[in-house]
Design goal:
The chain has about 350 residues and is of the alpha+beta class. The chain has eight helices and 19 strands.
């Protein structure tokens, strides 16, 4: 157990991170991700309030769907990357990162229309993420309703007479389901998932899995001074929908030319690459590693790095790994495709 975002979280279970990682790629694992926030936004003005506050366009989806989006500062920096679960026509569950929940609540309340309620409901539920190519098949024994939720779909289901919500979302690059369960039922739900044959997994495997999938982590790969355009996430910016915080800064950045850009880097050896490592080309610094690790699937070092945008995929760059200069290749993301 380790401290994480103000919570005590499992780093790994007795089988260890490598076993948990491989179980997710070949079968199914369950993560306790209750440290993520849940901010319920309700009322007739809920849709328009969120539409004005976030980068993506809610009109692209509908009730019963989930959407990835960003909350920006006025300079375009990513204050948080968020998943929205559109539970019912006037009910939205906004899912911020652990340490950002209070800021997201404050920001959404300040932007809310009259009659719109913004409520932090994090303490009322647990969120369990069941991920892997066999996740849905194993979850049929726990809840056929939850198991059948569409990819990026949202639906309510019943477990032990408790109303729960499932979304076809996750943070591993694999198929899967995230389930919000009332705290009173959380222990029984967790045990039912384990009884169905799903392997418990901790933060260590969650990090190596998301890194192989090329998914950025807020606070490392996106955050202050970094915009969605820097991170290659321009697809979450709905330019045509109208104004939102940070839009004018993004327009200016795009007109000036976006640099640096987030890239994948892969080494030939097994040594993990660490965040903050300087990346050089022909002896000149061209960027830095934002996050890196050992890839259990590829059995080599991999990293996300911000590099001068002139450096294309295929370049050979250098970095220092534990005091030794190591060659690495700039590669396309993701490092590992979905099973």
């Amino acid at each position: 157990m380790v401290p994480f975002g103000g919570w005590e979280m499992p780093l790994s279970y007795p089988g260890g991170t490598l076993e948990e990682h491989r179980a997710c790629r070949s079968g199914a694992v369950v993560f306790d991700v209750s440290h993520l926030g849940t901010v319920r936004v309700t009322g007739p003005g809920a849709h328009d309030s969120l539409q004005r506050s976030l980068t993506n366009d809610l009109n692209k989806v509908q009730p019963g769907r989930a959407q990835y989006t960003h909350l920006l500062s006025e300079d375009g920096s990513v204050l948080d990357d968020i998943i929205i679960w559109w539970v019912a026509p006037e009910i939205f569950d906004v899912m911020p990162n652990a340490s950002n929940t209070d800021d997201v609540v404050s920001t959404l309340r300040s932007a809310a229309d009259a009659g719109t309620t913004v409520q932090d409901s994090t303490a009322a539920r647990a969120v369990l993420a069941i991920q892997g190519p066999l996740a849905r098949e194993m979850m049929k024994a726990v809840s056929p309703e939850a198991a059948s939720v569409a990819r990026f779909g949202v639906r309510e289901f019943t477990f032990d007479q408790y109303r729960c919500v499932a979304a076809g979302t996750g943070y591993t690059g694999e198929d899967g389901i995230e389930c919000a369960v009332p705290t009173a039922a959380a222990g029984a739900f967790w045990q039912a998932v384990l009884d169905a044959g799903v392997t418990p997994a901790g933060l260590g495997a969650r990090d190596t899995l998301r890194l192989e999938a090329g998914l950025p982590l807020h606070g490392q790969d996106i955050g202050e001074g970094l915009t969605p355009l820097n991170a290659g996430l321009g697809w979450v910016v709905a330019w045509e929908k109208g104004d939102f915080p940070g839009r004018s800064a993004l327009v200016a950045q795009e007109e000036a030319g976006v640099t640096p850009l987030l890239h994948g880097i892969r080494t030939a050896g097994r040594r993990p690459i660490r965040g903050g490592t300087e990346v050089t080309l022909d002896g000149h610094r061209i960027g830095y590693v934002s996050s890196g690790n050992f890839s259990p699937s590829l059995e080599c070092g991999i990293a996300l790095a911000y590099l001068d945008s002139r450096n294309p995929v295929g370049d050979t760059v250098s970095l220092s790994v534990r005091g030794t200069e190591v060659e690495a290749e700039v590669v396309d993301l993701p490092f590992v495709a979905k099973s």
